Structure formats: structure tokens, C-alpha cells
Amino acid sequence: MKLGLAAVAVLALVPRVALADDKAECDFLEIRATTAKPGTIDAELKPLEKKLTRPPLSSWTTFHKLSGGHVSLQKLHAESLKLTQGHASLLLRDRKDARLELTIALDAADGKRVIDSQQSVNAGEWTAWVHEVGSDGHILALTCK
Amino acid sequence: MKPHDIDLMQQADGELPRDGGAADPKIAAVEELGELVRGRLEAEADAVPDARFAAMWSAIDRELGAAPAARGPGLWRRLSRWLDRYRGHIITGAVSAGAVAALALWLRGPSDRGGATTAPIDTTPASYRPTEIESLETPGGTGTVFHLKDEDGASTVIWVSPADTVESL
User: Fold this and answer.
1) What angle do CA A57, A63, A65 make, to 5 degrees?
2) In this predicted structure, what is the pLDDT of residue A138?
């Protein structure tokens, strides 16, 4: 009887673990970067402030948040992000503990694909995709856990 | 030939046949002397009281009782016996404890439920692996990858410059 209950409890755990390995919780920020002076950084970009003020992103002085939010990724299920300036699609290809394999495609406002990348990233780290638009910059920053 | 004393003693004890010679009186004297000594000793033995024998036997018993008892089985053997006897209980307990721990982890769920009041723990692995760009396509532009590190942790910047801008440089 006791062994039976223990076995049921262990078996009940298995789908839960598998589920955790198949998910990623991500936060994203869409940013417009310019050389306008005096330089300012939106308060909502605080998590990225130190990175924005150092090379290579410090070639711009003003950073304005265009959009942002949270997105949940399921393994091998593409998620679409409607951005203020364009469109992005995110795909979690695999996850091994704190290492995530992501595919990101970024389309410009005119619909043209500007970046299509596959990367293996550490959970909690920020990755930024930067696209030059004239003298300004269009940035999509993403962190997943 | 004159017999030696050892031969006479053996004849007196019956270990050698008597030859019936001139030594017979001597053998008879040895036998008589032996009888006297034996009788004397038996008389002394009879003189010892029964109570004295009882005391002697008690002393012997005490000596035997004081001898170290036979050593019991060793610690390892006792432990093995205990494990053999309670193996089922131990396995049941271990499996149950594992199941309860697993159940507790499952019920606790993801760590984003809030309620934590302590500062986040820095979980940077000892063997740090930076972001790895497996493939990068930048239609109409050129891509450059930067790996940055600051007080807030590591980050990666994938920078795409339009092809005409690169060509103009």
C-alpha cells in the first residue's frame, strides 16, 4: 500500500518536470535609439540602463521605449510579437536546465526581414537585436527564464 | 650380574618379571616401603573434612565463573542482522520520503509565485558559457556580435548594419 502511494506520487511528478523543461518565460523591450541631446533613457528601461550607456550602444544618447511586455514560450511553438516598428517571431527550440535554444526573426516596419538568428543563451541574460534605421537604431531586447 | 636399582624398582612395580635371585628381599623391602608411604598419604587424605572439599570446589567454580564470557557477534554482524530484519521497513521509508519530497517540490510549483523576501541569489555558474550564436542571417546587411559584461551580468548584442552603410565606409 505504502509503495503504491509512493509510486503514484513519483509518477505524478514526471509530467510536471517535463512541463518545466518545455517552457520559458520571457520579457521583451522594444527601443528606439537616437542621438538626440540631451541624452535620456526612459525609466522603464532601467534594467538595461548600464548596457545602453556602454559601447557599442552608447553611440546613441537617447533611448525611448516603444513597447514591452511578457511572453510565455512553449517548446517548438512559435510566438509572434507585434512591435511598434515591425514584427518579431520567437521560437523555443529546446531547453536544458538554464540553457535555452532560441530562434528569433525580426522584420522591419516595411515588412522586410532584417535578422534571422539562432542562439543558445543562458536563462536570465539579456540579448539585444539592433537594427540601424538611418542614423537611429531599432532595438529588440529579450531575456528568458 | 648384580641388578641395578632401576631394575629392582621396575620389578617391584611389576613392570619387569622377577628373576627370583638374591635381590628378592630387596624388592620385598621396596614394596613394603611403598605400602607404608601410600597408606600414610591415604590416611592424610581421609583426614581432610568434607567441608574443606566443598570449599575447594566452590573456589574452583568461582574461578571458572570469573573467566571471560564467550564474545558475542561483532558490530558489523549485528548491523547486518538488523538490516536483514528491517530491510522492508527501510526500503518503504526511503521510497515514501522520496515521494513526499517529490510531492512537496511539485506542489511548490514555479518560483515566480511571489512571497520571497530575500534578495535573489547570484547563480552564475562556475563554468560560464556565453551566449552562442548558432546561425545569423542578416538579409541586406552585415551582422556583428558583441558579448558585454557589466555589474548587471552578461549580455549579447547582435548588431545589423545596412549593407549600403558598410559599403560607404
Assistant:
1) 125
2) 95
Q: Which candidate in A91, A127, A144 is best for mutational testing of the B interface (most B CBs within 10 A)?
A: A127
Residue-level pLDDT at A16: 47
B113 pLDDT above the threshold of 60? no
Specify the pTM: 0.55
**Half-sphere exposure at residue B134, Cβ-oriented, CA atoms within 13 angstroms:** 10
CB A118 within 8 A of CB A93: yes
**For chains A and B, what is the number of CB pairs under 8 angstroms?**
125
| Minimal Cβ distance to A130: which of B123, B150, B159 | B159
The helix/strand/coil state of B115 is coil
What are the φ/ψ torsions at residue A140 (nearest 5 degrees)? -115, 115
Residue B120 grid coordinates:
535573489
Q: Which residue of B has its CA nearest to A25?
A: B112
User: DSSP state, B17?
Assistant: -
**Is 70 exceeded by the pLDDT of residue A3?**
no
* Out of A7, A51, A120, closest to residue B148 by CB: A51
How much of chain A, in percent, has pLDDT values that exceed 70?
A: 86
The rounded distance, in Å, linking the Cα atoms of A121 and A100 is 5
Q: Kindly state whether B145 is in contact with chain A, defined as any CB-CB distance less than 8 angstroms.
A: no
DSSP A75: B
Beta carbons of A67 and A60 less than 8 angstroms apart: no
**Nearest neighbour of A125 by CB, restricted to B95, B143, B154:** B154
Please name the residues in contact with A126: beta carbons below 8 A apart, sequence gap of 6 or more.
A47, A48, A51, A141, A142, A143, B153, B155, B156
Of residues B137, B151, B157, nearest to A130 (C-beta) = B157
Q: In what order do the strands lie in the sheet with B153-162?
A: A62-74, A23-34, A136-144, A126-133, B153-162, B141-150
- Closest chain B CA to residue A57: B157
A131: nearest CA in chain B? B160
